[in-house]
Amino acid sequence: MKLNEIKDREGATHSKKRVGRGIGSGLGKTGGRGVKGQKSRSGVAINGFEGGQMPIYRRLPKRGFVNIFAKDFAEVSLGRLQAAVDAKKLDAKKTVTAEALKEAGVIRRVKDGVRVLADGELKAKLTLEVAGASKAAIEKIEKAGGSITVAGGAKNAE
Predict the structure, then answer these.
(1) DSSP 98
(2) What is the gyration radius of the CA atoms in the chain, in angstroms?
């Protein structure tokens, strides 16, 4: 078999319907759109319209709200930190900050800061400077001989 001999299997592709090309094609005149009315015209999109019945998005009650002031933290587990240290992506001797985690590829973007969660085991003695941490994570870090500084979590003004 050669590259120029490669083709789809029989029946794998359907030829395009050429609409409005004469009465003999079966899709002439109205082009499969029926006769008159809103949907026979161009530029019509009636999404969510239920024929005059009250639409489902208006029948169902609205609940809850979205807190626009909520902080969105980049979450990092202790297991992920340990894996980065083992892979020599993080230097255990230096202070681990959000920027260091980003450079090491542990997090994709800093968002409103980094929050450390207690998932996984930590053997390395790390000095962390983060925006937040769970109580269990702080205990595990201190148990491993490391230290953690939790800042307020506010994003820099610049």
Answers:
(1) H
(2) 30
CA-based nearest residue to 116, from 79, 70, 144, 155: 79
Closest CA to 149 of 132, 131, 129: 129
Tell me the domain boundaries of the chain: 91-150
What per-residue confidence (pLDDT) applies to 92? 87
- Please give the distance of CA 5 from its chain centroid, rounded to a whole number: 40
Domain 91-150 has CATH 3.40.50.850: no
Contact partners, residue 89, CB within 8 Å, separation at least 6: 104, 105, 106
Say how far apart CA 128 and CA 135 lie, in whole Å. Answer: 14
Give the CA distances from residue 23 to residues 28, 33, 34, 138, in Å, rounded to whole numbers and listed in that order: 4, 14, 14, 77
Chain segment 58-114, per-residue pLDDT in tens: 999 999 999 999 999 999 999 999 999 999 999 989 999 999 999 999 999 999 999
Contacts of 94 (CB under 8 A, 6+ apart): 100, 127
Residue with tokens 């269990």: 136
Instruction: Look at residue 74 in the predicted model and tell me its pLDDT.
Output: 95
CA distance 1 to 4: 8
